[in-house]
Design brief:
This protein is of the alpha+beta class and 297 residues long. It folds into 3 domains: 67 residues; 73 residues; 137 residues, Histidine kinase-like ATPase, C-terminal domain (Heat Shock Protein 90, 2-Layer Sandwich). A 5-stranded mixed sheet has the order 1-2-3-5-4, with helices on one face.
Length: 297
């Protein structure tokens, strides 16, 4: 009994309960006023109309507020990923345009200074120039990772290959990119998702897996675009809920797949490597067109 009373008298009440309680009070007030008027009690018609109008306004606000805050999980996921991509693009522009230009100016100034310093200071100035050059290259690499501009101009296959060449150039990982069909005409959101998932997987391999071999395969199938990422690294135990278990990279992959209505399967065991399989389904119109063409053939 006390538990039920405690649950009813929880303070402060939620917005939904507050709206419902206000609507109930106004409704009771309007009904009471109507009853008083019907039995000829001393209540003016103007007060009755005001009460009825107040109840109607509160009821309308209640209905509108319910509609305005009712979002579908898919809409929230789409909006979240859209905001994330926009923020990545903004950071990429700031790194490339602002910080990149400042580092370039500092590098030119250091080279100018090097030509005018005495011989005993040349070595220190050379180290400074090399440090600025390395920092500028790192900033450009981060800018390219945040905003893969080559996806639009080069396409998914060439973008993946360029990323793998850059990231794995100075490592001991032997990698292979297998694209058995041409990947032209893939929707932009699908290409971005496949690229980001590959990015995250390669980053995890370099940080944790200690793998020697890496295979990435992209295929166009009738049901959709498939992405396979397989390595022979240390492996791990995939969590049922990656977000709660601290596997944020895997959680991000799952969110991108879910946004496009696809599926993600992660197979891994400690000491047995990792295999990631992602399926991005075609849009209904594209799938219907492919089925029609198959029947006609």
């Amino acid at each position: 009994m006390y538990a039920s009373l405690k649950s009813i008298t929880t303070w402060p009440p939620s917005r939904e309960n507050a709206r419902r309680f206000t609507l109930l009070l106004c409704t009771v007030s309007a009904l009471g006023s109507l009853l008083s008027y019907s039995v000829s009690a001393p209540l003016s018609l103007g007060l009755l109309l005001i009460n009825v109008a107040a109840a109607g306004c509160v009821w309308t606000q209640h209905r509108l507020s319910r509609k305005s805050i009712k979002f579908q999980p898919q809409e929230l996921a789409d909006r979240l990923l859209e905001v994330q991509e926009n923020e990545r693009h903004r950071l990429s522009r700031e790194l490339h345009d602002d910080i990149g230009q400042l580092l370039t100016a500092a590098k030119l100034q250091s080279e100018w200074l090097k030509r005018r310093l005495p011989a005993e200071m040349q070595e220190h100035c050379s180290v400074l120039c090399e440090t600025l050059e390395e920092t500028l290259n790192k900033v450009r690499d981060v800018s390219a990772i945040l905003n893969p501009r080559q996806l639009t101009s080069l396409g998914l296959e060439a973008s993946l290959r360029a990323h793998l060449v850059k990231v794995l150039a100075n490592t001991s990982v032997h990698w292979s990119l297998d694209c058995q069909q041409r990947l032209n005409g893939i929707p932009e959101e699908m290409a971005v998702a496949a690229f980001r998932i590959t990015q995250e997987a390669v980053t995890n391999i370099l940080r944790h897996a200690q793998a020697k071999n890496l295979l990435i395969r992209v295929q166009r199938l009738p049901q959709g675009l498939t992405l396979l990422i397989s390595d022979d690294g240390l492996g791990f135990s995939p969590a049922a809920n990656p977000g709660r278990e601290g596997q944020r990279g895997m959680a991000g992959m799952a969110e991108r797949i879910e946004q496009l209505g696809g599926t993600l399967n992660v197979t891994s065991e400690p000491g047995k490597g990792t295999q990631i399989e992602a399926l991005f389904p075609w849009a209904p119109r594209a799938l219907e067109r492919a089925s029609t063409n198959k029947v006609m053939r």
